[in-house]
Amino acid sequence: MFSLKTMMASKATKQTSTAASKIKNKLLNTSSFFKVSLKTNNKALALALQAQRKRSSQLEMEVMHLQKQVDALCFELHLVFLLQLLILNNFRSNALQHLDMVADLFSDSVRISLNTYLQFLWHIDIFVTFW
């Protein structure tokens, strides 16, 4: 039979190997848990990143659409301004024509004062054109 020393050594070796096996299994189990956890976390992060990219793309498209609307409205506003300026110049031109017709109806003495008035209007015309 085995001696007491041999049995104790064998028992100690057996306990050590059992403890080592338990630690190894625990490490493997913990490691696989972390792997699964990291895999799940990475998948969630990838989905979140994809959703964020999609949202960013939608926002960029919306900004471009709004910028096009702003450009169109600025163009329309400029056209309205030019149309109003054309109407104003037409009104001024008609007023000057009618004043000339009125001046022709009056005598020469009155015509001189009307010519002075027309020159004044002509100076205003220069101001309106530049304004």
Task: Give an overview in words.
With 131 residues, the chain is mainly alpha-helical. It has two helices and no strands.
Offer a quick outline of the entry.
The protein has 131 residues and is mainly alpha-helical. Helix content is 95%, strand content 0%.
Task: Considering the chains and any ligands shown, give keywords for the structure.
mainly alpha
Series of secondary-structure elements, N-terminal to C-terminal: HH
Radius of gyration: 48 Å
Q: How much is the average pLDDT?
A: 78
How many distinct folded domains?
Answer: 1
Shape field:
rod-shaped
Structural class: mainly alpha
Protein name: Shugoshin C-terminal domain-containing protein
Keywords: Cell cycle, Cell division, Centromere, Chromosome, Chromosome partition, Coiled coil
Family: Belongs to the shugoshin family.
InterPro entries: Shugoshin1/2
